[in-house]
């Protein structure tokens, strides 16, 4: 394997790693030699993914985390250090989205708005704070934040989600500016609508069946494998001189 995409012995935390796209990130990075931590609010799912990776010969740890709780994020980082001794990378994948009803902005309850911000923005902040001391002391680290292509076209009916993911874009740029001197890179990806298992489970079958791809350059549905390469690139040594950037992955629907 070429050195550029070799993840051997890199210790990578994937939040939301117990299911959906996060599970795919974990499995694929483990296949390239990473020691992965599947961190999820569903602790049983996190451990099931980690156990499957170990059974396949990889190294993995499953932990329960509520990223909206700062102490839980700190415990996630501590468990990673106990198991693997360091933290090389963090994929901020956990977010509230697929379970949110599609509805007018005016119908969104304030409590639901606050919960989305607590997870999608404060959770992001708290996860980064939890891993930063280790990365700073090692003078090396990789952070990848998962935003959404909705921020480019202002897709309607989930205003709180879109707003939170626009915040991820700004957060990525600002944090990259603050930690660059520590040799830590911070980048983001903006996926389009992706047919993960959780997305399929929580979507109206009629909505999925009637979706068209006329506005995409690549005329098919987006699947988790379409995102993995970009995230692994940002986790690898190939992107050591790239920071503060956001890569759009939506089949060419939006050019950025």
Automatic annotation (TrEMBL):
CDD domains in the cross-refs: SDR_c
Which reaction does this chain catalyze? Answer: 2,5-dichlorocyclohexa-2,5-dien-1,4-diol + NAD(+) = 2,5-dichlorohydroquinone + NADH + H(+)
Family annotation (SUPFAM superfamilies): NAD(P)-binding Rossmann-fold domains (SSF51735)
Q: Give one GO biological process term.
A: fatty acid elongation
**GO-annotated molecular function:** oxidoreductase activity, acting on the CH-OH group of donors, NAD or NADP as acceptor
The record's annotation in InterPro entries points to: NAD(P)-bd_dom_sf, Sc_DH/Rdtase_CS, SDR_fam
Write one Pfam family the protein is assigned to: adh_short_C2
State the family named in the UniProt similarity comment for this chain.
Answer: Belongs to the short-chain dehydrogenases/reductases (SDR) family.
Q: Record's PANTHER family?
A: 3-OXOACYL-[ACYL-CARRIER-PROTEIN] REDUCTASE, CHLOROPLASTIC, SHORT-CHAIN DEHYDROGENASES/REDUCTASES FAMILY MEMBER
Which named protein is this? SDR family oxidoreductase
